[in-house]
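Cross-posting from the modeling subforum.

Setting up a comparison between two proteins and wanted a second pair of eyes on the formatting. Protein 1 (sequence, then structure tokens):
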Amino acid sequence: MTTEPHPADAPDLSVVVPADAGPEALRASAASVLEQTLRHSEAVLVDPGRDSATTRACADLAARHPRRVRHVTAARGADPRDTGADHARGTWVTFLGPGERLQKDAGRNLLAAALDTGADLVAGTWTRLPAPGEKLPRGAEQAEPAWQRPLHTRTRTVGSLTDAPGLVVHDSLVTGFCVRRSLLDPEARPAVRHEEAPPVGDLLFGVRAALAARTVTLIPNTITTHRAAPDPAADAPARITAAARAARLLARHGHPGLAAARERALLTDHVLPCAAALLSMDREERARTADQVAPLLAGHLGADALAPLDPVARACLRLLADGDADGARDAAYALANPGTVVSPVVAHAGRVHWRPGTEAAPSTEAAPGADPLDVTELGLQYRPFARLDLLNTVTRATRSQGRLLLVGRIVLPAHALPGRPEVTATLVLTCRDQPARTLTLPVDDIRYAKDALVWRACADLTRLLGARGVGDRVWDPALRVTAGGETLTTPLFAEPETVKPAGALRARPRLGRLTGDTWQPYVTAHHRLAVCLLARRRPARLAEKLLHYATHFRPARALRRRLAAVAARRKRLAGQAVKARVYRTLLLRLPVRKGQVVYEAHMGKQYGDSPRAIHEEAMARGLPLRPVWSYAEKPDGFPADARLVRRWSWPYLVALARAQYWVDNQGFPHALDKPRHTTYLQTWHGSAYKRMGFDEARVKTQNDPQRRRLQRAVDRFDHFLIRAPHDADTLGRAYRLDPDKLLPTGYPRNDRLVAAREQHAPRPPLAEALGVPDDRTVVLYAPTFRGGPGHKDAELPLDVRRFAEEFGSTHVLLVRSHYMERAALPATAPGTVHDVSGHHDVSELLALADVLVTDYSSIMFDYALLDRPLIHFAPDLDAYTADRGSYFDLRERAGGPVVDTQDALHEVLAHLDEADPHWKAARARFAEEFGAYDTGGAAAAVVDTLFAAHTPRRRPKPCPASRRRPAERSGT
């Protein structure tokens, strides 16, 4: 409970609350001010005098809290916010919009930051109410802009807006900030005022305040909540106008870069959401919105503003600016459903255009944004008919003789079906809750039209759709089209105004009409046609009410809660924490199973690396071992001569507890202790360029329990493979390993590479499997992992599409993203680019590659053994090493050129034959320094050492003199 300030005390913070949203919203905003933990704060209620109920609410609040609430009446024509600011007594002033509320500690956090830093403006974060149908993150009750959190990661003070561009590039300062009252004085120069009428004035006020402030402090605390949900279509005209004026304002104050960024943000923050809103409008409203927005976009769609956008987004904006409401709606559907072809794209002069009739535009310009309707980057011209996701629009839906009559139109690009082969189609209905249940109905007619396939189907749902009535009430139709030996299935895009005439159709569920009596076509939230079984007649409605009562009255609710509790308990019992406890307390007591070896590579994601080489060597010798391989998700590609167990499953835990040997290249789960009877071989997965283990800055900043957990995990190792003295100096020291545990055998996975170098073997069978022609140069692109915990999606530094366009006739690009990431590759000409990220064994890819392009990944150390061209493409090398740290300077000791732009990379590749001989000596030094122990016999040496009890005595393979360490060759 807060205490009110003494009447003589001037408040520290004044909160201006315009009373223009009704008495209820006013009371909620005022209550949030009164509940502040900041003692010296006041609410200034500005009454526009238009509503007697609001006036009474203001007067009542002021009477009940005379020391904390002041009632001010705005003069006719005056802005309520400026009126409130003029009457504010606080040193600092903040504003609340209609219905907005201050977070309980907002005032205290704002004031503390202002006093600590002396800034003129302090900004925190804000949240808003969700829009209808908007999905929120789990546990969240309100939404916040995606750009907001990166801006407020920590408390910081900036003297220039270029140090925090998001403040003025986006609509950050619409709420959630306070400003020094002296800046709001009408006599101040410049005076920060609401010069335009709402809502434009509200959007520009924050930009003016930021420009006037000497310094700005950003804090990570939430200040304002309950901001109104956006209405992208209705808000678009005001927001576009405000953003354009804000850009001009920034340019006048000497910030042309921020002005250009504001123009780009206008398109992504406001115009594209407006286009997305067209999907939910009827034809008349859609046309009206396009007519309002189109004139405002003049001058905002320059090439610089459009270049960073997706090609479909560029086309969507251009169509909206042209007033093409239906075209913009279709493009918005493609943005919501990536990959969907919504327009009959055509090829002309080597470029692909959104629709016929745009070929005469300056589309020969390949620069992104030069022609917004140039969509060559999408690579649609390379996709066969079966891989095209074509927009299938329902143009008519009605009831005909008790059946559902559907007429539709499928967009058909010019290249999709050359020669117009015979086409057939069927209508497929899929049960939403049971996808395996489908019903196939014939299509009455399908034929070619200009730029499209038109079709007609009449479905007797009453007779043919034999739903039970329970668990199969919703069905999703799609059209399956076959032409030229290819088949595609496309869902039905529909609008409510098109589907409404279909009305309702009689239903005959197999469990009787008490479960439902009507099939109702409708449009889903994803704008697709579906049919749902409903209860419309009296018997079915009565049965539905009885069923609802039976499942919702008190005993039923209690039963559901109990079942939910049981399900939650079962889930906890199947969780890793419980399994780890059972493993430690019970499974570790199990006896050893002699000869059992548990192998794991990259946490079960692959069957490859050194564990695979060791396994294959042991199997080739016929050793009496019991191999077990773990897999993370699917066992596809794992060996048939081993028992397969899913990672963290009970069989996996039992296998680990009873194993005589553990072999992996990264680390078995840290929570699992090694049994006393087990020998653990850690093969590791690569030599170190970046700092590892206890040398990492991230680990150094961890607390003591976290570092102890890492140390316990590392202490489980009995043997650790190294491939050069460099590994002992880096990995051995970084993980605090006993030198006696280090085995200088080299990596078993690299035996294949040493053999490929010495034997000059032809291309491996993998080349034929991938369809790589003998006359093409194979380039393997394998970047390192750049993310952090939980990071999955990777954005490749290499522009794969550009590479394919320039080198596709002479080179084949193999792209292998890191096993902890996934990367989406663009469509390119067939045979020019292959995604080999899912290939289990990277050694096979290295042996196939004629050139390796990597950054600073440890794969560079392995590939150097082949004595083939190695190129380091590392645009972010300096930033990465500054963040992660490194053990050496790559530019000084690299075995190939280090480039930081794609232009430089292409230049190196184009003249590789001339340049590579100059790198042979450096590459040899690189291989010697980082792979001195990789002699080709690592797998045999490891098997001899690890499985000595199961291996007949044999003479070790001699080390070739060319691969011995200098001290060994000199006899010392």
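Protein 2 (same layout):
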Amino acid sequence: MPVPDPGRSRAVVVGIGDYAHADLAAMPAAPAGADRIAALLRDPSVWGLPEDNVITLVSGTTRERILTAVRDAALATEDTLLVYFAGHGLRDPGERLHLALTDADPDFPQIGTLPYRQLRDLIRHAGHRARHRVTVLDCCYSGIAGGMSHATAPTRDELATALDEPTDGDGTHPHGDAGGGEADAVPPHPADEDRYGDCVLTSAPAESRSFVRPGARYPEFTGELIATLEAGIAGGGPVISLERTWRRVRDRMRARRSPEPQQFAHNSATHHIHFLNRSPHAQGEPGAGAPGPGPAAGPGPEPGPPAAHLAARDAAERIARTLPEETHRLSLLAALAIATAGVDPDKARRLADEVIQAAHETVREPTQRSRFFARAAVCLATLDPSRARHLVDEAERAAKDETDPDARARALVYLADELGSTDRDRATWLLEEAEDTAHGVPDIEKRSYLLESLTYSSLVKSDPEWCRRLRDEADRLRDNRRQGEEFDKAARRSTEGARRAGEAVAISDPQRKVAQLVAIARELTDSDHHHQAVELLEEAERTIQTIPLGNRGAALGILTSALPHIGWAARTLPDRVVDLTSRTRRAVDGITDHVRDDLQEDLAKTLAHVAWSLARTDPRRALGLAREAQALVPRLHAWERPTAEHNVARALTGIGKHLAPSDPRQAADLAVEAWRVVPKREDDLQYKWTSRGVVEVLSLAGRHLAATDPHRAEELLRDAESRAHDLPASERTSGLRAVAVARIEALGETGTSTYPDQADGAIRRAERLARDLPDDETDLLRRLSRVLLKAGQDLVEQDPERAARYAVDAERFGRRYQSETDGALTLELIVYLWARIVERRPSYANRARLTAKKVADDEKRAWALMRIVTALAPADPEHAERIAEDIPVSAAKAHALVAISKAWAAER
């Protein structure tokens, strides 16, 4: 089957990325995708259209320019006309589609848009000589243009009805009218009309939006289309049909639970339009000929299910029916129903009916019942849309039957994930309801876990702002829970302490009363009854106010000596501790000079200790207290200053550690200042601690600066490493470990796509540091492996080759783990990354298979191999079958066979 004649074919490619209206987000991926599509259409290894036969229009173009370009291309086309649009799509109250241009107004879709109907009519009238007319739409609600896919190709009259084309009522098209209207421009097709055909390919159903994944170079549908044309289809022969190309794109998007692309074709047009196949495999298809112009063969009858599909499907079904666990059995039957719906609708209906009946009669758990209804609905979405909608309603009711809010939220999330590929809008609404339900879960730990679990949904991931908000809220709940636990622990009361405090309060002599209250407070602090201790010191401070001014010195001395011991209470009672310290300081300032000078050291120590304790929850306020302590140092006696300077330096490094995530530059400045403040004495324990703290702060600052200023971050990390080497021997290892952890975590914070070369250098330096620290090597390499796996996951869409290198490195580091449990878990995560890589680059399948076979546990190895098979099957089902032979566990093998059967069905 030949490729359409490039000289007699034309293409108009439109990508709109800039929008003036605030409610229409910029979409730079759209013009980027349009440019790449145009380049592929011109490429001799794909189609080979002449340069002048492809018109590309991007942001800033107008409705008139697009229509003029389409008119000129259509009039010149004798073989195949292709019109492509990517950008925002809008729908009006009449459910009509409007293609948004730069000045579009989403509230009034008629303004600044190109109505699809206008484009469609122009293609139909001006392109009347074209053998095939292809429209590709990558925008929200694009399914309005083409309707839902049918199990078999519709007639031309069905296509006309779906596209709102006029007919004369008896199944024929009007070729003219007495009034000489626009129908005059449509001459009759030749007698061999089967050689002609129209088709519309859309990125999503009529009710769904289309999406650009975060950081993706192209819109999702366009990206899959580009990937398929670029890589070709293994075993497809020298040419691949538009039908096969579309099915490959559809299956890949289904696998990610993205909106399902739609196709509407007349006269099996998608079977007769071919592109050259870039795949290196040379297997041919029956009837495939050399590319070049020439008549297309008639479509003939639609073939039945492919033999390879039947073999894989039947093998999976045999295994499924032997499984004792009903949930596993029904899950597989539902998956088989979805896999076979496109090639064997009757079989799909029978399987779906079996799953539905079991869900009604034997499945008692509401969440599972909901999932089975949803999976049956996915199967029936194109076979019986009305029944599918009814099943979705049933699935939602079943999910809401869960009485426990925790279980109900989970059920709604599961249901949303199942519906993501067929009804994205409803799936999004269900996720929003799941979020509302999660907020009603009384247990804070469960609530935070549920909110975080929502971020793993593919729908939430496609909305970075929503994902970030959920993560922030989950983190806030965990912080509040931790702070609440700390508060409850510090608020514990000692019965014995309360009894003794009552006796002390009754003492009439204020000097003795203060001494007794302070002594009890110190004991309570030592036993972690911090709040009770603060209460007693507050009572002591009030008692001092009753002592004549000239006699307060001794009592103030007792109080100030105890204040440093309540620094920990500043974490849970910050206002009361700071106020008590301030009142005591004012009282000290009011007494005679010689007594006041003797109390300044305790005040400076108190301010520094409170600042250090407060740093975690309020670093800005803590810094103010540290500055107050620093201002007292020059007023101290010479022998008191070194200790005070150590306390200030310790406070500055503590503040720097907690300030680094929000203000890494100031944190680095505080570290350098602390280094200058602390006296340099090698045998001084406080000097060792402060020096190590400086290294830790510089490391943290470098880690958190890496995303915004990688050059400055590298300077700080090098400075930290240099200072770590100069630390006393007892602290050197801890300092170098802090640098190594910071380097590793910096990779995780920033990813690796923005500065890939610097990232590669950082990986090498982190590995070197890990190997220089034998006692910490296992932990550091474990951290590095996890960071590389996350970086690989982030990169796999844009740069699968680099992601593969990270997978190899992560596995290499993992081999050095001493813990079998950690090593096994890391291998499973590596296999998961390899599976995503194989989806993009099937040539890595054998490498991925080797990694999966290293998993020691039989069951885990089986599911690891299943992941590889599922990822590979759409591109190369034959190779996937060979890998599936190695799967040792029946349930996992059955799931792999389902994926293979689905892939063979798409090859029809």
